[in-house]
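Researcher: Quick sanity check before group meeting.
Model: Go ahead. Protein one:
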Amino acid sequence: MVVKFCLAVALVMYCLAGHAIANSISIGPDKATLLSLKSRAEPFAKHGAVLLSRRNQVNVNDKLFETARFYRAIYLTNEEAVSDYSKLVNSFNAYYHNSKIEFARVITPDGQIFEMQKDAISEVSANSDDYLDDMKQIEFAVPQLKVGNIIEYQIYEEQTKPIVEGQWYSSVGFRYIKFLPQKNWLRIDPILESTNTLTLPASTPFYTKNRNTDIAPVITKKDGNVQYVWQMTDLDGIEVESGMPPIDDMQPAVYVSTMNDWQTIDDWYADMFTPTQVKAQNITELASKLFAGLNSEREKVKAVFEYVQKNVRYIGAHVNRGGYQPHTAEEVLNNAYGDCKDQTTLIIALLKEGGVQAFPALINTYNGNLIFDDLPVLDFNHMITYVDSKDGGYWLDTSGQTGTFPGITAQFGDRNTFVVDGKKGRLVKIPAIQPEDNVANVNIDYRVEDKQIGIDVKMAFNGDVETNLRNYYQYSPEKLMVIEQLLSPFAHDNRVSSYVASDPADISTPFVVSGEFNNLLTLGDEIVNFHYSMGYSQILKVFTGFSTMEPPASRQQGLHIQVPITVNIESVYPSPWDKARLVNQNMARNFQNPYFEVTHTAEAKDDKVIAKTTFVLFAQTISAEDYPDFYAAIDAFQKQSESMFVFEKILAKPSVNDDVSLEDKIARSRAMLDNAEFEHALEYIKALAAGHQDNGEVQYLLGIVQGFNGNDEASDSAFKRAEALGYQY
């Protein structure tokens, strides 16, 4: 078995070597030119890597099949870039294209060339886990990867099948984005020269749309073809930062297509989708069960959503079909699994049985994706279901197992979809998610039991925050850690004593988590004043990423807040003693600015204080220029977010006849004055002064208390008496 395994590996490695073709003609600059370009790259060297040349060459034949070459020459200027470029990747759809590396090598500063080794290349699936598709990756590495050297490689691709029969489309980019899976990050390095060449038959209809650029191609006609050349030079690198606006919103691009009418896409996909809706007995029987006793459209839609969500496992299963052709609804139900388009197929078939009309809707889930009204480009990676209804319609997405009805993430809000209806199709925008659609409700109840202070914290959610936390809790191996991340910040970061969480997999039941925090403080007899406090900046820690932010001086990009949220907090602070009074109520500051709002209210009622706080964060893109203002607003909120409520134990009224020293009686008098107990203080100090006529401090206190009670003449007399006795004040 070992021998056979080794032979198999050797055979695979030998076959993979076929991905590299020796002596292929380069479409890039020659070696001397590349070495000379290094001096031009010096102003960009701080980025760690500079693309000396990026060239794409695409040829489309009269059958609208394409062949393409992609050339890259990358100059490495620091060790981090050497590490980041240690593995190179080319992704392609193996159902529609063949792809191979024509050459990959390294050029040293003295002109030596080190070719890629035959065993330094492999082909793998681009996805993993429960996702099976036709996306492949050629992964390869080059030798002598060192600072100062140049990586040079070229890839050849050939289209083998049409996507939309008789049509062609693509996009022309000018950047090179290096994905870094090991860092969960990416880098966008500067480019000295980026050239895109496209050649098509002159008879081919051709339409373009520019994005983030006004570039125009150089057009040449020759031998019945038209050649378009777009070129940009000296593109600086883009500093990638967490939370920045979508990169596609910052990149120049040109979209190209042989189509200018979305009906072409509608006809193409309707032809694939319609056969999936053949009437089937298992569909009819299930629909009859699901809709029994249901009358409203909403009830039927929700019933179908929850059935598919619970019973049809999401798994990518479109091997050898390029990701577009779904299974029939009958197959999906029998298999009890399917990808997004399979689940959509089943949902639509079931709803049709209930007299509810629904349609497949194509969408791109990547931030920054743009769909043009008059330039059809099949740039979609996901399918959801659109129910066209009189009450505004429903958007259903069952691909996330923890999503509650209707399952649409806030990230899809305000995004265009293409709805396939078999007529002409239509672009329909998903409504933007509002803060009130995405809510966390937090209840914080303090309790006093046998002189022990405890806290009960409970959270309930809806919208994206519920889906995300269901998912986080369900798939985390450390449940306690998740609970404490959520609850402990609202209990002064104490460890939870016990907790309860609802079943995250049961999407028909609201997801609720609660925890008890016991024996946090003992109310000893010596305590006569008790302070409750709450720092509402903990909202930022639990529900946003803003508790720690980059200072403006080190931030280069703006900030994209994609998901709005509302956090409601109700806190109950009971009186710590049977006989106590609320002596101080200091509320945190309210905020109202373009970015977020915070409002606080409090009501003393039935020996307790009930405080309510609402935090609302708005979805928006904050420019780099406005980022310092946002940072300052967050900083102010963190510094002025604390509310405090002080209860004082009511003690028996002290008497001047108590067996305590005169110093203690004077201290009592001052405490009464500090606490504004002026009537009680007048009675006490008058009695004290009657027995201590010759004590200047007592006479002074008598003057103060007489003044607070409006007895000006008596107050003046007491002050004069204190002065006569030599009391200094």
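Researcher: Fine. The other one?
Model: Protein two, sequence then structure:
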Amino acid sequence: MAGERRVGNLPEETDCLVGRRTELAQAARLCGRSRLVTVSGVGGVGKTRLARRVAAGLQPQFADGAWWVELSPLSDGSGVAYALAEALALADQTTRPMLEVVAEYLAGREVLLVWDTCEHLVEDCRQAAATLLTVAPGLRILATSRRPLGLHLEEVLDLDPLPVPETGGGGSGHGGSGAESADALVLLTGRVAQAVPGFTVTDANRSELAALCRRLEGLPLALELAAARLRDMPAAELNKRLDDRYAILGNTETEDCAADPPWHQALRTAIGWSHELCTPAERLAWARLSVFVGTFDAESASRVLADERLPAREVPHLLSGLVRDSILQWVPTAAGERYRMLDTLRDYGAFWLRGLGEEGTLRRRHRDHYLARAQAADAAWIGPEQLTWYEQTVADHANLRSALDRCLAERDGHSALELAGALWFLWYACGFPHEGRHYLDRALALDTAPGPARAKGLWTCGQTAINLGDTETSLRLAGVFRAAVAGETDESAVFAAAYLEGAALAVHGRPAQAAQALEAVPHTPPGGGRYDAAWFLLQATRAFVHALSGQFADALAVAEELSAECARRGETWMRAWGDYLRALAALKLGHAAEAAAHARTALGGKRRLHDSVGMAMSLDVLACAYVTCGHAELAARTLSIGEQVWHTLGTPQMGSPELVAARTACEQQARRLLGNGAYEAAFDAGYGTDLNSGITEALTASDPFPPGSAPPDPTA
């Protein structure tokens, strides 16, 4: 039975949303009548949490789902289009501008996009929204921002703080109906109960808790910071500290505080006294942690923070203390335990970091750490830890992007080249060729000095050009790279040059010349080097060129050699390509059962690395193997799962003309065997299945090729 399809990537709620019934209803109404709705309000008022709940309620109304786009880690507005593509899992392989790719993908779909934290990128978000809403009539955008985007069709929901208990506890401000039912008090006491086992509201603490809510103006972030501190002191003492802080407000953090709305002052006050209650080491850690964006792990924190003032051995304890005090959030992920800091608290830490005169030093440490991590991943990519490095690098993506943006903003082209070149596997293997090209083009323009960094940057840029089908650029860069490494003693550079030239010629439609370039180097892999992965890429290209030339036995031999070396090294990504090429060659040689087995193995490997292009191609060849042996219904279902994957890439017709033609022939043969009605039923059943479930089904379905059985004649 087909499972229910789930489309979207909305993050799960980690905390209960308190109150906001009126605002939730109002936001839903606005989204029903307007194509752009912005939830606006001061930092810490709960815009993100409200938008997440609204989007979850609206998701069933959108046939193609609700998608969360995290914009807070971006420092450069040019990254907005890439963040959209990343959220939508688009892996377009053309040279078109990424916003155009996103627009084409959305044009015929019913989608809700949630853009979280737009205030620092308002101009770029406004332009992107105007473009997308023009070409995609089924698109709705729900944004969160401290200030509106400013489009004429935008409707704005101004989010105020939560209602607070009235003085004396006889009612609630902002429309509440009783001291204990005031949403601010419900939030505060609920968070305290989470932090302090056995906590209850009593006659002795009720009035002080209510006064604390009033003092903090019902601002959710301020209340959560207060709840963390009530673990260590009674509400009466905390209220006194707040009174004292109000008396000095305006002399340290900012000017003209008196002109701000009261909850602006409440937020500064809550953050300020939370900062004051931290130990000196915690304050320093808070300031230094502000250089991170998105999430980060404890090792990264230690590498960037630690020095003689802040010993590395203290960092784990400091992280735990900052989580305990709600300055940091603990985030479990596939890559392990990680941490993140809310934008408002990060801004405060950055203010103090500048005051300490350490901003430049810490940003350099941040850059150097992520450069070292990228280089370590590059060196270990073709090996048994590849999956671990994949998860680590994807988790670090926001910080890697931030480091690159900082290098380019400071016109440090050399560091940008080193980092972007080391990340070749992120751009090429993990599905971000557009973004890689964006950074590499800028870095190469900034740093024109010859040397290893520029050579690696040229090679990596050539890879992205091949991935994007930019044949002219790939051929040009192949020649430039060969000249750049002409005197190189690293033997892996010879393989890198041969691969880049051969792959560029193959993409250019010149297989004979491609084969000549690829065969000009030994078949045995080099013993390491800066371009250790080049031999594996070269072998895959060599097998593919043989297949395109109709030399299927040669393609099979090369692919088997590739798979064997990958197995010896414990590598996954290139081994899956080797298995795909083995499937393709075996199918053409008339070994359909063998082809299906290799295709399934390839699909499993590509799934582990979330390689959408590889998964789609593996599903296509698996369907071809099925239909060749007369299993037309299985072929139809497999084609439908493959089409779902192709759709995540923007179109079901991606791929080389030869592969598109093979897919079309597979569909036509399945229709002949089943009849149009039965084919459509089988295809629709597969397409109606959740994508993950469909891939699992393709990997675990009963083997339709029993050992020793002869495949039926599909033309009989």
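Researcher: One line on it for the slide.
Model: Confidence is low (pLDDT under 50) at residues 169-179, 248-260, 708-716.
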